[in-house]
Amino acid sequence: MIHFILRRLILLVFVLFGVTVLIFGILMTFSPERRAAAYITTPQQAKDIHKMVERYGLNDPFYIQYGRWVKEIAQGNLGWSLVASSTV
């Protein structure tokens, strides 16, 4: 029984890694400008889209962005809700 539980826990690590890579990969299909544009609410912000891309590190290599994203998810920071205008 212990062997079964240990095997499942080890498998869980690989499954969680695969799921996070899949979700992150889907998010990365959008360009940095497109991802930053999701948070633009005023015309003034539209002019500063390149500053937003730099501010949020959207031009960083994917492995740095992935590490940052996993760290935030592990800490319970799931992002910002555009509908509720608050943290998720």
UniProtKB/TrEMBL annotation:
Residue ranges of domain ABC transporter type 1 GsiC-like N-terminal in the record: 1-77
Membrane topology: Multi-pass membrane protein
Database matches in InterPro entries: BPD_transp_1_N (IPR045621)
Tree of life domain: Bacteria
Location of this chain's protein in the cell: Cell membrane
Keywords: Cell membrane, Membrane, Transmembrane, Transmembrane helix, Transport
One Gene Ontology term, aspect cellular component: plasma membrane
Transmembrane regions listed in the UniProt entry: 9-30
Keyword Cell membrane: yes
Name of the protein described by the UniProt record: ABC transporter permease
Source organism per UniProt: candidate division KSB3 bacterium
